[in-house]
Amino acid sequence: MAAAPPLLCFGVIADIQYADAEDGYDFGGCRRRYYRQSLGLLRDAVEAWAAERPPLAFVLQLGDSIDGLNARRGAAEAALERVLAVLGRLPVPVHHAWGNHELYNFSRARLARSGLSAAVARPLGRDCQACHCSPAGDCQAYHFSPAVRVRVVVLDAYDLSILGREPDSPRYQESLRLLREKNPNDNLNSPAGLEEPQFVEFNGGFSQAQLDWFNEVLKFSDENQEKVVVMGHLPIHPDASDRVCLAWNYKDALSVIYSHRCVVCFLAGHLHDGGYCLDSHGVHHLTLEGVIETPPESNAFGTIYVYEDKMILKGRGRISDRVMHFRKW
């Protein structure tokens, strides 16, 4: 008897951080970053995805598509144009998370008018009857249903952040107050001595409005027995990350997820070494290895196949294959 085909399959990639620059190193000066070669690895990923059978339904780009180095060189627009041109060769939608490096290069207002905007990828039509497609304001969260009883939620992990916002805006002031309350260091990018080391400037968090919206989406999915995949740039589980790279209020996001039964997986980037855990509620947390620290002879992307009872990750290069079984309803 032939095995049942997948309900759908989709591509995943994180932390491309392209810049037209020679190789460099991370902020600690220890880890090599392949700025220029990352675009070639993205091209290889696009070629592999285009050859997938069955064909992909979409691709999830988990944030940090270009590096902050571009802002200092005046090259942000050109770098983003190159990345989007490569992704534009795909015949399927690409859904983007915003990471800290997008916000080093552009304001949120500028990103909202770019090819990384939620408005570019967000589907319209029957999907909007589930609940509000997006939270109010400039939050970039949205959801869509690519197959029957399957939903994808894209979260905005920098909804609370001082990155990319005008200093006189209410959300900037709210975020700065929270950050200074949790991080007394002169350098807000330093986690030194912090009880909650995720409270650094290069991270962010979820506003209460976004969490309330997220709760309503999951309520709808529970009622309709949907399986939900959630995506955001920042990890939300300590066992799938180091303590520094988590979203500021990751516990609040987990609390929303744990009050429902529908979420099967949370996909993130940000931590270039990657990570994985199956938590106590049966949710898989997969943090993808970053393209930026991948040698040009390797790669770091994957294809996820969704079945009735599991998801199967077929990894390339640094990303390992993985079978992620769903808990029983």
Automatic annotation (TrEMBL):
The keyword Cell cycle does not apply. Its cofactor is Mg(2+). Keywords: Hydrolase, Metal-binding, Zinc. It catalyses: ADP-D-ribose + H2O = D-ribose 5-phosphate + AMP + 2 H(+); CDP-choline + H2O = phosphocholine + CMP + 2 H(+); CDP-glycerol + H2O = sn-glycerol 3-phosphate + CMP + 2 H(+). GO terms for molecular function: 2',3'-cyclic-nucleotide 2'-phosphodiesterase activity; ADP-ribose diphosphatase activity; CDP-glycerol diphosphatase activity; manganese ion binding. The lineage of its organism: Eukaryota, Metazoa, Chordata, Craniata, Vertebrata. It comes from Falco tinnunculus (Common kestrel). This is Manganese-dependent ADP-ribose/CDP-alcohol diphosphatase. Monomer. InterPro entries: Calcineurin-like_PHP, Metallo-depent_PP-like, MPP_ADPRM.
